[in-house]
């Protein structure tokens, strides 16, 4: 939703292969279908990613590097605010992991 969906729609309109990295399979797939319908671009795909989980970030990056021949643009748009204090299963504060550590790790893993 929001800025991420607008950016993804714009990229798809430009005929880019567009990967939506979403936590929710249901919401992500709905966004994929909306963007495909709005742009006529069938190369819009969903990949699951939870940036609060470094294991999820590593798995996502590994799949992208394995499955994609190249990556031209990365838009880090995930973020949360106002959540109650919580620690992830990896021992990280959830908001800090989601907003900073996950995107930082993802970017570095995808640099190649």
From TrEMBL:
GO terms for molecular function: oxidoreductase activity. InterPro entries: NAD(P)-bd_dom_sf (IPR036291), SDR_fam (IPR002347). SUPFAM superfamilies: NAD(P)-binding Rossmann-fold domains (SSF51735). This is RDH11 dehydrogenase. Keywords: Oxidoreductase. Transmembrane segments: none annotated. Belongs to the short-chain dehydrogenases/reductases (SDR) family. Pfam families: adh_short.
């Amino acid at each position: 939703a929001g800025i991420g969906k607008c950016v993804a729609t714009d990229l798809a309109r430009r005929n880019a292969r567009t990967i939506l990295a979403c936590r929710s399979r249901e919401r992500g797939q709905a966004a994929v279908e909306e963007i495909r319908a709005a742009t006529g671009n069938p190369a819009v795909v969903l990949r699951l990613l939870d940036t609060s989980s470094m294991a999820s970030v590593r798995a996502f990056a590994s799949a992208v590097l394995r499955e994609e021949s190249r990556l031209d643009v990365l838009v880090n748009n995930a973020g949360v605010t106002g959540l109650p204090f919580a620690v992830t299963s990896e021992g990280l504060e959830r908001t800090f992991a989601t907003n900073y550590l996950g995107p930082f790790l993802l970017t570095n893993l995808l640099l190649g």
